[in-house]
Amino acid sequence: MKLTLNVWRQDGPGDSGRMVRYEMPDVNPDMSFLEMLDLLNEGLIEKGEEPVSFDHDCREGICGACGVMIDGRAHGPLPGTTTCQLHMRHYKDGDELTIEPWRSAAFPVVKDLVVDRAAFDRIIEAGGYVSVNTGSAPDANLTPVPKDVADNAFDAATCIGCGACVAQCPNGAAQLFTSAKVSHLGLLPQGQTERWRRVRHMVATMEDEAFGSCTNFTECEAACPKGISIDFIAQMNRDFVRARFRDPEADD
Amino acid sequence: MAWLVDFYRSPLAKKAVMAVTGVMLFGFVIGHMAGNAKMYLGAEVFNHYAEGLRTLGAPLLGHGQALWIARIGLLGAVLLHIWSAWQLTLLNRRARPTAYVRRDLINATYASRTMRWGGVIILLFVVYHLLHLTFGSVHPSFEQGNPYHNVVSGLQNPWVSAFYIVANLALAFHLYHGLWSMFQSLGWNHPSYKSARRIFASVFAVLVAAGNISFPLAVLAGIVK
Ligand code: FES
After folding, report:
1. Which pick of A21, A90, A248, B55 has the fewest CB atoms within 10 Å?
2. A115 CA → ligand 1 middle, Å
3. For residue B206, what is the domain's CATH number?
């Protein structure tokens, strides 16, 4: 099938960038979206032009490296799908697509469609850990965890940190990501010791980065390729206020 | 106290402040609507009710004192609500300095997307409403101590009534998103009532707006005269 692509091209962080139009005369519907971009790049390289930079790694929807705005939606039109798992059969001959990088002050564009998501790493560093030496993997069921709690923590843990929540949010807020990371450990018995400090630190780091603030649009939940629920945001809000009122002067 | 100031620096805390002040203002609009519904019972009952607000809390409180406590509380809530919203809006603008060339929202409701401008409409209306029926300065035939006359003659002007109706439609949308949002911002999402939050928001948004809109309509239709 024949497609027209409008792709954001930006030489580097300092460049102001522009949309460039590419005609794709022969896209195979079995291709993934990233393979389609590979095809575009092969053509560009053959012509001696600079290929389009985009992030990717596993190409099986589990690493969170890929992710672009496709026609104004993070990871494209399908729910629960990363860009690498989106296939061209969902498009039809003659379609025109707009492909842009995540737009967020906290995620500066590195080049073309590649953004720097180190802000997420800094949030993780602030509290995404449990400071107990666990040794080797414990035996199953050694620490009893109620089924619903385990399920909830696991749901939070499925976050792959792709940044779609920030990209889709009209406010550029990182509440969904941060809350998933806070809840993932904060729900489990192993994470209780640092529960209040964790939420304080991770939220403070989130707020130090150039993210916006949640106004409950629920766009993040809809765009999340892992379907992470905004329930975790509510949980984080609750824990954050509780943490402050439990120990108002704490600044550790 | 220093920690409270420090706490308020956090956008998450500002959202909590918006939720708490929002609840206070919600309590007010519900009471205001219910009280005003007394206009259906005639001039005497309505004027008696209005006068009764001044003697609320007697004999513990003096004439009009309860009213002033409520006014100061509401003014504080309004200021905090707007100030937090303003700061968060600036923060959110800064968070996306470059707009998308193409944008497609998935889930965001009309109500959630119009919170800011809806809020501005409501604020402008409140200012007008106070000048109109509390101070009487923009009212053509204001009579001190005769609120029934002021309401009825004021709303007989179709343009004035239209503004009341538009403002209350804006209020309905604002409440629909705000009341639900408040649970989320305060972290109240226990499974036992989670699904009721939307229903709660819809019911009260419609109730407040329908009640308030019925007043100008009733006046225009000659039911209240
Ligand atoms: S490349 Fe790993 S999730 Fe898409």
Report:
1. A21
2. 14
3. 1.20.1300.10
Mean pLDDT (whole number) for A194-217? 94
CB A234 within 8 Å of CB B184: yes
DSSP per residue, B61-91: S-TTHHHHHHHHHHHHHHHHHHHHHHHHHHH
In a domain, B61, yes or no: yes
Distance CA A58, CA A28 (A): 21
Q: Which residue of A has its CA nearest to B112?
A: A217
What range does the domain containing B74 cover? Answer: 12-97+109-220
Q: Is the pLDDT of residue A250 over 80?
A: no
The Cα–Cα gap between A179 and A233 comes to 5
Which value, to the nearest 10 degrees, does the dihedral of the CA atoms of residues B82, B85, B91, B94 take?
-90
- Structural domain total, chain B: 1
Task: Assess whether pLDDT exceeds 70 at residue A252.
Answer: no
pLDDT at B60: 84
Q: Looking at residue A225, what DSSP letter applies?
A: T
Give the start-to-end residue ranges of the domains of chain A.
3-110, 118-246
Quick check: A228 contacting B, CB < 8 Å?
A: no
Q: Which residue has the higher pLDDT, A82 or B193?
A: A82
Query: Which CATH number is correct for A118-246, 1.10.1060.10, 3.40.190.10, 1.10.287.3610, 1.25.40.20?
Result: 1.10.1060.10
pLDDT of residue A134: 65
Give the chain A residue whose CA is nearest to the CA of B179: A216
